[in-house]
Amino acid sequence: MERRIFHVDAFTRTPGRGNAAGVVLDADGMNETAMLRIAAQLGYSETAFVLAPSDGGHDVHVRFFTPAVEVPVCGHATVAAHYVRAAVLGIEGSFVQKTGAGLQRITAARHEGDWRIAIRQGAPTFGEPVAEALRGRIAAALGIRAGDLAAGLPVQVVSTGHSKVLVPLADGALLDGLQPDPEALADLSGEVGSKGWFPFAVGGGRTDGRMFAPAIGIAEDPVTGNANGPLGAYLVRHGLMPHDGKRLAFEGHQGRALGRDGIVHVAVDIADGAPAVVTIAGDAAIRLDSGAAVR
């Protein structure tokens, strides 16, 4: 059986920007060995394999593979997969995706002459702020001083399905100059209980961030849906952006330091002053070398 492979850049409309992923349509009947082989050949951080639903509880089943292992779910590869389904197969609307992490509500809708993919994330959860003694070590591991962390704001593990350590910076100008120590960050990951580090800054009605995860072999991720989603919950909890009491919407910018700029569109529904539901959305671009068939 022939299967079509697409090369997609997510969270951007410009090929070569954003976060790259592979998408394999018609993946039914493939075993894990075959999926791993294709994921390794493509070499992207994640490749999405689209399968038919296995029962009536969902509309589509998607599996995600790095070049070495299957992972439960991936934000940018989800955007990539459903962008291909919309742009190539004409599948639009709201539906349920089954992943290794459970079920997700996905929406593929027309936006400014193209497609935008939205993912409803899990309920926000917050860890305790890291201890004061750890703040200095975290700053040093990122290549900055303790005073470069935003005063009065916690360094905190936040999750909407995949936890990240959110590190607020006092000045956005610090972001591009960060030179993290991978070994130090990996060691600290074990202490704080999360493997992804997301230093960020807020200004001008938007956020800018970078994501490092050396504990799982990712020196830096270009654009991370599963970091900008928790960031939205953090912004509401700590009152860092104005909103109408019902919803906060903003653009999360990432990838500039790698030359792969991208934007995650984040919306946080608010109930009783607290973040309740987080949705991330993104555009995508299919590269010209896409659609090749493999067996």
Radius of gyration: 19 Å
Tally of DSSP helical segments: 5
Q: Return the structural class.
A: alpha+beta
The share of residues in helices is 10-25%
According to CATH, the fold-level topology of the largest domain is Diaminopimelate Epimerase, Chain A, domain 1
- How many independent structural domains? 2
Q: State the end-to-end CA separation.
A: 6 Å
* SSE run: EEHEEEHEEEEHEEHEEEEHEEEEE
Reported CATH architecture of the largest domain: Roll
The CATH C-level name of the largest domain is: Alpha Beta
The outline comes out as: globular
Description of the structure:
The protein is α+β, with helices and mostly antiparallel strands and 295 residues long. It has 2 domains: 124 residues, Diaminopimelate Epimerase, Chain A, domain 1 (Roll); 158 residues, Diaminopimelate Epimerase, Chain A, domain 1, CATH 3.10.310. The strands form 2 sheets. The protein has an 18-stranded mixed beta sheet that branches. Strand 14 and strand 15 form a beta hairpin. The chain contains 5 helices and 20 strands.
